[in-house]
Fold this sequence. Notes:
Distance between the termini: 37 Å
Helix content: 55-70%
Low-confidence stretches: none
Protein name: Endoplasmic reticulum membrane-associated RNA degradation protein isoform A
Number of helices: 30
Radius of gyration: 31 Å
Structural class: mainly alpha
Number of strands: 2
Pfam families: DUF4209
Shape: elongated
Mean pLDDT: 89
Keywords: Membrane, Transmembrane, Transmembrane helix
InterPro entries: DUF4209, ERMARD
Amino acid sequence: MAMASDSVTTCLSPPVHYVICELGFEKKDIYDINNILSENGEVFWQAISEHVFYLESDRSVDYIKSIRSLGPVCESVNLYFKSLTKEQFVVQYMLWFNWTNCTELFLEVFDVLQDTQTTGIALGLMKLTSCLERALGDVYLLIGKDCPFLLRDLLASEQLAVVFGQAVMNVLRVFIGSPYGLNLRNVLWHGFASPQEIPVKYCAMLLFLTAGLGQLLQAYLLQTKCILVHRPYVFFVSLEELDIFPDLSHETLSIAEQLVKLSSFVLKTMLPFWMAALTAFKQSRYADCVILLLPQLEAGLRLLFTTTNNCPNRLLTAEPSALYTTFDEMLAKHLDNEELNQLPAVLEEPAMEFLWDFLNHQEGPRIRDRLSHGEINLKAFPREVANQIVAFAITLVCRFSDEDMFAFKEHTVIKPLMNCASCYRSRFHPISRLKKQVLECTKSIHLWPELPMVPEEHIQTIKGLEGNAEVNTFIFMISEIISQLQQYMPQNCYSSDDPVSSVLTERLLIELCDTHICTLYSPRPVLEVLVVLRKISTQCHQVSEQVIASAGLRYKQWMNKTLRSRQRHNYLRMLNSIKFLSPVLRLILVLITLELINVHLVCKKNLFDYQQYLKFLKSVLQYTENLVTYTNPEKNKWDETVALTNKALIKIRKMSDRKLMLMQLAT
């Protein structure tokens, strides 16, 4: 696919380019730093806020006039910081950065100001703005609840105005948080600005303002006797679930450096960012690597998006009144004009699922959100996560290029990456999470045969259990249900001699869960059904864990002869109940996976009154919730469990015809 990456000289629209790259340089005044800074480093906020102008019409900030007036102030601050040694900076300012909970970052930014490497300035600004947003959120929570997710809403909040003053917040909004101002955070994090388009002086000014905010906050805390509490960082859990691509070697990274120079996926103005990201990975600066790379993935995908949907104007930053083309829109099913988005078809399902998994799904790592909002400890960013992002980026660079990349794609270190990318399946969509839950629950239930048991003759001595009549009745009902479902199960997993033991196996559930279901753009009915199915699975797992815990405890008490007569009777009732509870729970798990497969197909064919179906599923959920209550070690209501299960199996058997109709419609 031909993409005009060489011809793109900027991703900033003319008005945005003017605001960021020219407006703040129009006034040539030399501003005296002593006007806004005392000898001991105190920031004179009133003198700074005098450079913020307001519209006569509604007294909102006049961003154009304000940026023009603040330009010389920013340059003065930049020159001032350049005149300081690192030791002077530490003595004068480090105390005022403590409120951010990441003081080392501001030392890094100070170092960057000294060498003025363009990618370093952009990286420093991205890290600074995310850290500042997190810290401002902590301040917000001194007064308010439920911190706003968006920076612009946070900066416009009454809570921060109470702490810092409205004039101070308006100064900040000129630089970040408003699409009408410089909007430095969004322009960088969404991959619109190239390295040379971000003036160094704005980075210096935000460093300066952050110290000034620390001074104001200290005064507020002393006055109110409040204590600032920092929210804990978000940590990536279950890193093994994020392990998709093989570990990147130095050879792979060296080839990647060649690739990005040739690929049309990479905008040439953004090439320094790509090179800096690969260098950061080599240097084990994994957070820096991902912070640099994510906006470039967005920029490359934006180029692909605008090419495939024939809307080249959407490549540039939009005006405040128009929509930015960001990941959210690029990954959506439809464009803003309701036409079908062509990008998913071009990227293909595996790449789309990877992007949704790592960026969007609520139970996924949501890397870009968490990094850009300051929720992650940058010093502890795991190599495993960075490895996946870099590897995926390499596959896109390989796939979308005008050059003949066959030799690269077949290279011994690149081909495994391409193979992994081409067969990726979602791991964090609710469908995938349900499959994971089912398999975890299955493993738990399959531990039951290993539970310590008292001899069988003890169980048969209980009045009312002679011959295990209840167990036999339940097993017969389960067998009937299985026979109806058999045609919708994988082949060769059914035995007429013993359908319960031979069908309701771990292997069957593994095979069912391995059935591929497209997770992209699941219909709303499917998502609603999924919520109930996941709740059912959760309850089944809790029942299993409670049974395991109760069986172990009661067996010890039995062997130690510490159970009273009633407790012994109840324990033996439990052991008898386990005989039918195990196949019942396994049956429910099979039903969950079959419903997942077939309801998805039925919904896609619009053949399904899912409200009536939800009612049935909720009745199954009610059964499993009651089971959790009755099998709780503190309750041990095993007689009630028998009656409850009898009613549930009758209902499931009655509904089997209805479910069979659904499955026939689906197939």
